[in-house]
Structure formats: structure tokens, C-alpha cells
Design a protein that fits this description.
Number of strands: 24
Distance between the termini: 7 Å
CATH topology of the largest domain: UDP-n-acetylglucosamine1-carboxyvinyl-transferase, Chain
Number of domains: 2
Shape: globular
CATH superfamily of the largest domain: Enolpyruvate transferase domain
CATH architecture of the largest domain: Alpha-beta prism
Bound molecules: uridine-diphosphate-N-acetylglucosamine
Radius of gyration: 21 Å
Number of helices: 14
Largest sheet: 4 strands, mixed
Amino acid sequence: MGKFIIEGGYKLNGEIKVQGSKNAVLPVLAAAILNKGKTVLYNCPKIMDVNNMLKIIESIGCQVKWEEDTLIIDSTIIDTHIIPKKYVQMMRSSIILLGSVLGRTKYVKISFPGGCSIGSRPIDLHLKALKQMNITIEDKYGFIECSTDKIKGAKVTLDYPSVGATENIMLAAVLSDGVTTIHNAAKEPEISELQYFLNQMGAMIEGASTDTITIKGVKALHDVEYRIMPDRIIAGTYMSAVASVGGELYLNDVKSDHLDATIAKMVEMGCYVKTYDDKLFISVPQRLQSIDLIRTQPYPGFPTDMQAQMMSDLVVANGTSIIVETIFESRYKHVPELAKMGADIITDGRTAVIKGVKRLNGAEVFAKDLRGGAALIIAGLNADGRTVVNNAHHILRGYESIETDLKKIGAQLRYSKD
Ligand code: UD1
């Protein structure tokens, strides 16, 4: 489980290199399976979610090897179509293998992903789209079995621009017969990253970052070397940390246009942000200002994955702020933990009203999910005295080196396995 022990109140100054993106690399790992050959990925984050995904692709026959932060995947042989249940339970986003294993072998059996800590996260949109592509889907005793003699291109209109559904359809369509168009597709940068990666492998996809994506099926793919883009949520998390505690930070290896919505809210709180080609500078005033309203929305709107960290800033801002979480129905599990530290927050359904307090107090708190856990670290950095953030395993799912990175810029914290 593990915990982070934080002594609060130290300003943060310096620079951090942002790790490769979790939400980009997971679909890219799934996509690698489509090729009977080798994939080399640079700037791959060494995080628990990646390790779990690697265990899954090894369990179906792939060979994987790390060389520093470079990952080599040999997917010449895939010898089973069954994704073990224990992995799907460990990592809900393994559902992304549905499209790629199907694309490679025309059959896949995967356990139904249960609820997760931030909401029920159904996969109805994924399945509805795959059915339109000549794929038969059976729901048997908690397992989904998908099979087809030939994946056929189709016109798919999503009821909602789901990131995972868009990725699964793209993955299933790459080696299909004909042309697939996805209307009302997700526009997240990770979708564009998947398009770039697949096209470098020989796929024919266009339209990512618009709401219509077109995939022309091809016969085969080829080996590829690819550098994973920087993680926009890690960058946002470190911006939030500096915003909360104060100081000056350079973030290296960022794509600042991916951060537009987050930067806009940082500026509204009174931070100064300057962007360069591949880096960003943030400095912070004496006290943050509240924000009238933050609504989480699909990209390019404000990301739900930054909601908790931003709340850790607003709890110490001057004035009252409102957050409306429109994407996931139960993504406020960090709220009672922040309240233990003295935060003044009322939630009603998807709305949170945050009255800024002058100081937070250190406390023993529990991470309930990945980003909520990061938010508790941020609150701890700013609190008087010691904060212990338990259940650190949630945070390690997505943050490669949060302890080292924050220490490097002046934070006092340590990770303990106990
Ligand atoms: C991805 C990200 C996650 C991020 C989220 C929204 C990865 C590994 N995860 O998750 O970090 O918070 O996008 O930006 O990339 N929905 C349905 N039916 C479906 C699919 C989704 O109702 O078939 C709903 C979900 O319950 C949720 C909303 O649509 O309320 C958004 O989900 P989606 O965009 O699919 O998120 P994920 O791909 O799961």
C-alpha cells in the first residue's frame, strides 16, 4: 500500500522534466499488438499502470524488455485471446485491449470491468460501436466474448465523445475491411498520439483532434520506433503544487497547448504563466484568488483529471469557488480527506462549493484514487506540520517519480513502503 509523509510549508523552486504520458502510452501499448513484429517506445513512464499493461501483453504471448526508459515489445507471437480477469480488475483501462486483440486475432475474451473508484465507467459505447463493425458480442458469466470472421468498416456515431471508446474503435478498424468513420469522436491529445503512432506503423487514419476520425483499413503494419508525448496531467499536477505552496517552477518537456484549459485557470487564480516551445514557467502570488466556476469537460475543456489537484489550490484561495464535475459521477472522494486538513468544502451531487481558508493543518489522510491522491500530496505540501497520505499505491499508478521530482524543487517528503 505505502504512504507519503510530508512536512508542509516549504516553497517550491526549480525545474522538473515531465514524464511520458500515461494515458498516451496505454493505448499505444495496446496498438503495438496489432503488428507482428517489434515496437520500440522512447520516454515510456515506469509506472504501475504500464507495468500492469505489460504483464497483460506478456500473458498473451508478447515479449517485453526495458532499456532505461525505452521499452521494446516483440509481438510476433500472440498465443491466446483471453485477457486474465485479475489484470482487468487491477486496471480498468485494460479494456483498451478489446479493439487491438480483436484486430489481431478476430477473437477476444475479457472479463467485464467492474465499477471503479471514480464512477461506474460503463463500456456500452465501446460495445455498440464494435457491433456495427461486424463483431459479435456475447456477455457470458461476467465475461465479454467478441468474435468475427472479418472486421468491417462502419459509420459510427458516438452518443458521447468517450476517450476509451474512440481508441477501441480506432484499434479495431486499423486492419479491417473498408473505411470506418467515428463521428462525435473524443478530441483529447492522446487520441492524436494514437493516430500518429498507428500511422507510423502503416495505418491510414486522419481527423484526430477533430470530431470526425476516418480509418481506412490496411492489410498489415510494420515495425516502428516512437517517442511518447509528455504527460499533460503530470505537468498540471506540478503547476498545482507550486500554485498551492508558492514559488517558481520551470517544467521541461511539455506541450503547453495541451495545457491551455489548466493554464487559463492558473492565471485566473493569479499565477503568472509563460509558455515556450517545449517548456513552461509558472510563478505564484502571495495568495491565490478563488475561481467563480470550473466545469470539467471533454478536451479542450477543463480536464476531469485535474479537478482534484485544482481543488487543493482553491481550498486555500481567497474567496469562494465552485467546481462542477460533469464527466464522472463520484469523483469527490478526496473531499472528506481535505476536510480532515481543515478545508471548507460542501458537495451536492456533481457540485462542490469551496470556501478558501487561510491555512491547512497536517493530518493522516487516505488516497482513494490516483488524482485525488496527488491532490492530497499537494494539500500536504501547503499544510502546517506533518501530513501522511496513506494508500500511496493509487498515486504510483500514474506518477513515476513524484517524490524525487518534488524533493528536487524543495519539498520535504518521503515515501515509505509500510
Ligand atoms: C480516459 C482517461 C481518464 C480520463 C477520461 C476522461 C485513460 C486511460 N483514461 O478514461 O484518465 O479521466 O478519459 O478524460 O485514458 N462512458 C459511458 N459509456 C462508455 C464509455 C464511457 O457512459 O461506453 C462515460 C463514462 O462513464 C464517463 C464518460 O463517459 O462518465 C467519459 O468516459 P471516457 O471518456 O470513456 O473515459 P475513459 O476512456 O474511461
